[in-house]
Model the fold of this input.
Amino acid sequence: MGGFFSELASLATYHNIVFLAKGALTTIALSAFGCILGGLFGTLLAVARLTSGWLSWPLRAFALVFTEFFRRVPFLVTLMLCFFAFQFGGFDVSTLTVGCVTVVLIGTAFLAEIVRAGLQSVHPNQWHAAAAMNFTLLQTIRYVILPQAWTVILPPAFGFFILFIKDSALASQIGVVELTYVGKVFNNRGFSAGVSFGVILLAYFMLSYPLSRLGAKLEKKLGTSRTR
Amino acid sequence: MAHLELDKVSAAYGKLRVLDGIELSVAKGETVGLIGPSGSGKSTILRVLTGLLKPETGSVRVAGETINFDKPADIRTLRNRTAIVFQQYNLFQNLTVLENVMIAPIKVHGRKRSEVQAEAENLLEKVGLANKLESYPDQLSGGQQQRVAIARGLCLKPEILLLDEVTAALDPELVSEVLDTIRELAAEGMTMVIVSHEMGFIREISARVAFMADGKVVELGAPADIFDAPNQDRTRDFVGKILRH
Amino acid sequence: MDYTFQYGQVWPYLPYLIKGAWLSLQIAFLAFCGGMLIGTVCAAVKTFGGGFSRHAVNAYVVFFVNTPQLVQIYFLYFALPDLGIFLSSYMAVLLGMTLNAGAYLTEIQRAGFESRRQSEMEAAEVLGFSRLQQIRYVILPHVAKVLFPPLSNHYILMTLGTSMAAIFGVEELTGRAFNINSETFRSLEVFSIVAVIYVFVTLIASVALALFGKFAFRTKMRVV
Done:
């Protein structure tokens, strides 16, 4: 046990701490990027799936296939597909870019389902009232449904963001320098696996735990507030 | 000349036939009451008239124009000519009373906010809610919410107002305030189709009353005939049961 | 993009991949069962238990839920040998996934326990049900119905999660994809086929679970 702490002390150099902090920042940035762009595209897909009429069936089909595909393929496999697609496509991009594209694809699929569930949580009466007053689908969603649905959408979306912080650990496999990769580097530099990955586990915990508490608070607050 | 005409209109939810060859016409400025047991198709007629349900056969004509339910433009026209007030009010919970009334004219019809606001305030005053403009629906009683819903419908300047059991969800002491509002509209010459279980009110306000059962109009006539001297057994049966209560 | 897909080289490996998928399903199933065992005990402790045991369970759940499964397995696989505990890569993955599942399933089941409806239990008590009968006829059917959809959902997520076993050299579906890739270098072909197999396998699992839930608990679950 004494060896553990002396090793920990020798790990705590200025450069290592900065390296660790940068890794943590990359982890957060990767998740946030996936959730923000994914939320945007996901909302579009959710709306696409609510369209009706035979003219828009290709739109619905695309949204369905996209969400089902990327929700049913493991993160690691999607990551490899993106990685090789860029490589064989002849695009010379950084691994970080590959990681970003991957999280946006996956984020879009999962957030599309969260947004769709939120939109559908609004009582059908509200849809009917808007339809009877000649609102278009987009007007109905923009002025009537989203203002009521966002309190339903936000807690699970935030939960997904926290989940993504941990799932994005897999990006280390293609060499994205995020938290898990930092742990592997420490380990390769001769620090024991216990110390290297122990520190990384702790770092993830310090990111995820406060956020999950915040998420729980958010859910409570939105759950009891009025639907406006 | 009839302003609104339904000609042999039939409709179904899946396999369940809910309207079966409906013949009904409403003249301009006329109030027609629809009565009948639950599930007889009264409210379904209103859903057809707002384009929420597409008839399988038959035709609907408004001001002489036949509505093609497969054409979005026709559905839009239909919805511009009619306004519906629902049993459950269906106010937008996220908007204030005033915004509820103004949103469709502004966003759907693209009218000027200042102009709409003046009208909306007038209408809300007319239904007795001038002091509730900034309230949210969940701060109002059922009767107040229903009057907001009527104002919201009127602000669309409909040619025909459809009222779907607008007092059914209200506590008894709140019913009269809503009925008073509707009475005023009838006196002003609004064309209305009213579905209601308030038999006394239907009798008083309607020019003609249609008794419906099993998706059909069983009997159509002046209120006095329907309520006092019905021709059909089913009408007599229904009216007898209702009036005994 | 002037890449030409050549699936011809990869097709012969299909039976090899399907055997890998079978191993993925086994890992997910074993880890889920182990996780259910841990989760049920921990959820019971969290709901009914006292002071210390509750804190211990809380610490376990909070730690595993807030750290990545991948790093947990790294720790088990690379750090435990320093303490004299040697796990095969398969065992490290299975243990990591089980512990991780235990934490998530504790949370899911606790929410289910808490959804017991007081009014129904009172009604059962007034009707003269014994405590055991209350559990048998009122609590269990309700809790099972509430829990089935989120548990099914987690099972699907766990099936996808098994793919990280590949990183430790376990030859499940993704691991075999890496193997074929290093032999044929038809990366996009291999991984796209593997992706479709995952979609297929989880879709079948979703449909089966939804059907089972419908008949056993009258739950309404949407597959897509």
Remarks:
- Chain C has a mean pLDDT of 89.
